[in-house]
Amino acid sequence: MPNLTNPPSGNQLVEAQPTGISRLVLVFRIVRWTVYACVLIVLILLLHKSAPPAVSATPEAAARVEQKFQDVQQSVAQGQPATLRMNETELNSYLASHLELAMKAATAKANSEVNAAPAAGPNATPDATPSAEQPSADDVEQMRSNVKDVKVQLVGDRVRAYVVFDVHGKDMTLQLEGKLAAENGFLRFEPISGQVGALPIPQATLEAAVRKMMESPENREKLKLPSDISDLKIENGEVVAKYQ
After folding, report:
1. What gap in Å lies between CA 121 and CA 129, rounded to an integer?
2. What is the DSSP string of 44-76?
3. What is d(CA 97, CA 163) in angstroms, rounded to the nearest whole number?
4. 205: exposed, middle or buried (C-beta count within 10 Å: 0-12, 13-18, 19+)?
5. CA 179 – CA 183 distance, rounded (Å)
6. Separation between Cα atoms, residue 76 and residue 228, nearest integer Å
7. Distance of CA 179 to CAs 36, 152, 161, Å?
8. Is the pTM of this model over 0.70?
9. Nearby residues of 17 by Cβ (< 8 Å), 6 or more positions away
10. Which of 75, 131, 133, 199 could join 82 in a cystine, given CB atoms 3.0 to 4.6 angstroms apart?
11. What is the per-residue pLDDT across 68-103, written as a single tens digit (0 to 9) for each?
12. Is the predicted pLDDT of residue 18 greater than 70, yes or no?
């Protein structure tokens, strides 16, 4: 008669199943904590505030830029071509002064509209619907600029922009490097590199984001240059704008 092997007992089957399940649970836990660690690293890099570049800005330099604009406008009004040049200090001084004015204007507008909102009268019902003209807290917050600081470096024929912006009360930094040019009456930016916080942005992602921003109908008008500017570029560490 053939020799029949004894089938595994019930205890052996019960012991084999938990072994396979425990390995699956172990793999799941390893993958889960690996994902958590990667997300944490990305958040740390995103929220890391990069040090600002060493650039200078003075009221005297901002005043020189204003005078240069006036001289160019006079030349254009007389039908003469003109060229405006700004070095790094003049550009940062001009940006700093106008950013400060823009933030003050936005804050003043928000406060004035809030103060002008009609107060609830004694006969007002608790469930009364607010007027469409009365700004809400979200509307007031949107009036305030999220951009808190801008610094620009001019290196050769490239521009390096350092931007500090507010995201839900947390300061984040964005750094972009690229080339500026005028094309068919619009400002064109060719990105070379970029990073948010300490996290580098992949080149393909950066190019796609910039292209989408420039092709967006909402931003298209904002990138339109004045009709009298024929060329705009960075040359030898200066912004060079040609008027005609």
Report:
1. 13
2. HHHH--PPPP-----HHHHHHHHHHHHHHHHHH
3. 15
4. exposed
5. 12
6. 8
7. 37, 13, 11
8. no
9. none
10. 75
11. 999 999 999 998 999 999 999 999 999 888 776 556
12. no
Distance separating alpha carbons of residues 131 and 134, to the nearest angstrom: 5
Distances 68 to 20, 25, 97 between C-alpha atoms, Å: 77, 70, 16
CA 166 to chain centre: 9
Q: How far apart are CA 66 and CA 91, in angstroms?
A: 11
Q: Residue 136's CB: how many other CB atoms inside 10 A?
A: 11
Please count the other Cβ atoms lying within 10 Å of the Cβ belonging to residue 127. 5
- Contact indicator for 194, 206 with CB cutoff of 8 Å: yes
pLDDT tens digit sequence for 104-151: 555 656 566 656 655 544 554 444 443 334 444 444 344 344 778 889
Q: Quick one: DSSP state of residue 5?
A: P
**Which single residue is written with the structure tokens 């995103």?**
46
Q: How many CB atoms lie within 10 A of CB 117?
A: 12
Q: How many CA atoms lie within 13 A of 220 on its CB side?
A: 6
Residue keyed to tokens 């406008």: 73
